[in-house]
Amino acid sequence: MAMRVMVGVKRVIDYAVRVRVKSDRTGVVTDNVKHSMNPFDEIAVEEAVRLKEKKAASEIVAVSCGPTQAQEVLRTALAMGADKAIHVEVPAKEYENLSPIHVANIIAKLAKEEKIDLVILGKQAIDDDCNQTGQMVAALLNWPQATFASEVAPENGGLKVTREIDGGLEVVKVKLPAVVTTDLRLNQPRYATLPNIMKAKKKPIDKKTPADLGVDVAPRQEIVSVEEPPVRKAGSKVESVEDLVKKLKEAGRI
Ligand code: AMP
Question: H/E element holding 75?
């Protein structure tokens, strides 16, 4: 039986942008800054599309939670090969305080509603670096999880997943329904072609609110401050190895 797959796609500041902290230290500057799909989510969409190409998946549903602009990444997901998109609208002000538990609750609800067999999320969003949502979705649904996947292979009605672990690889088998989170080496996401981008513009995007799904998005935390990383101090040049050793000795480093 082919799987119904749900992928989570988050709109984040593009990985190549140098992020700046707002002068009042409440967050980072997002106005007029290039945004893109979270890179690990591109990998999630790609994996879902590959499963569909192998006839292991029947339908791909992309979900994004966020303000109106979240639709941009849903269009990209549709252009890459997702069949259907759901935008869970969270106004900008509320979105500032949306945490992984809120997103996980939303995705868990939608996964049930859409009779999903496999949820594929990124291992982490590159803006908040939380690395929590996939694990929470699995816990909320009481489904098995295979995180940090570098290979996903359908096997005997379940999945064999290779996981990237410290210094090596771990292979696990999970039964469906399940949650998988993607690591960098899982695949190389395709670029959406122009004809597919045009076609994606015509595909409908379903709109929902957290309230429609019965999910409370009241903030659970308050951001106290956001700081720039400390500026690296300039080093000094030495003339010779002897000089270097002398200086290190003087500084009590050797
Ligand atoms: P995080 O736990 O915040 O590091 O995010 C892990 C993964 O959860 C991301 O790579 C996405 O697949 C998914 N995710 C997080 N936030 C959102 C969001 N606002 N909309 C859709 N998916 C999300």
Answer: helix 70-80
d(CA 251, CA 162): 47
User: What pTM, to 2 d.p., does this model score?
Assistant: 0.92
CA of 197 to the centre of ligand 1 (A): 23
Secondary structure of residue 243 in the 3-state scheme: helix
Tokens of 169: 């690889």
Q: What CATH number does residue 136 fall under?
A: 3.40.50.620
CA-based nearest residue to 14, from 42, 32, 34, 41: 34
Q: How far is the CA of 104 from the centre of ligand 1 (A)?
A: 8
Name residues contacting ligand 1 (CB within 6 A). 8-10, 38, 40-41, 44, 63-66, 100, 103, 121-122, 124-125, 128, 130-134
Bridge partners (DSSP) of residue 89 are: 66
Query: Is 158 within 8 Å of 173 (Cβ atoms)?
Result: yes
What's the 82 CA to ligand 1 centre distance in angstroms? 17
Question: What is the distance in A from the centroid of ligand 1 to the CA of 235?
Answer: 39
Residue position matching structure tokens 């300039």? 234
User: How many domains, the chain?
Assistant: 1
**DSSP type of residue 21:** B
Domain that holds residue 45: 3-250
Q: What is the DSSP letter of 96?
A: T
- 18-64 pLDDT, tens digit each: 999 999 998 999 999 999 999 999 999 999 999 999 999 999 999 99
Q: Determine the Cα–Cα distance for residues 22 and 224; give it in Å rounded to an integer.
A: 13
Helix (H) or strand (E) holding 195: helix 194-202
**Residue whose entry in the numeric block shows the structure tokens 């900008």:** 92
